[in-house]
Write a structure and sequence with these properties.
The chain is built from five helices and four strands; from the N terminus they run ββαααβααβ. It is of the alpha+beta class. Strands 1-3-2-4 form a four-stranded mixed sheet. It is about 75% helix and about 5% strand.
């Protein structure tokens, strides 16, 4: 497997990513990269404004760095295993739900709630865009 092909050879579950999917993956990488930089480089300030703990911001920021790398590899691949893309879409949906649970259960100032709800909305939009792009993708030969 290379960055050219992230698929099981001969697998019917492999797809050739559509332009829509590639664009959605790159957009997700850009948004996630910006969030990672913000949370890693300004965790103290973000924590003070949002009420979210700096360890949570640093941990999720570090996770996002690895996630961005995965997205960029997927966006560059000629062929991708469909279940891997569904994992990305499902992960985005789970991230959004996690943000909403934190917003509901933590005692946060309004900026903390707004930060989490904005993340949830953005991530759900990206997941929907990725699902649309996946549906538009052709089966790999």
């Amino acid at each position: 497997m290379t960055t050219q092909t992230l698929a099981h050879r001969g697998s019917a579950a492999s797809i050739v990513p559509s332009r829509t999917l590639v664009t959605a993956l790159r957009a997700d990488a850009a948004v996630s990269g910006a969030a990672a930089l913000l949370q890693l480089l300004a965790s103290g300030s973000v924590a003070a404004i949002t009420g979210l703990g700096a360890p949570l911001l640093l941990g999720s920021g570090a996770f996002l760095v690895a996630y961005v790398a995965l997205l960029l590899v997927l966006a560059a691949a000629r062929s991708v295993w469909r279940p891997l893309l569904w994992l990305v879409i499902g992960g985005n949906t789970a991230w959004a739900m996690g943000c909403l649970v934190l917003a509901e259960t933590m005692a946060l100032p309004w900026l903390g709630i707004a930060y989490l709800v904005a993340q949830a909305a953005a991530v759900l939009a990206l997941a929907a865009w990725q699902a649309l792009g996946l549906r538009r993708s052709a089966a790999a030969q």
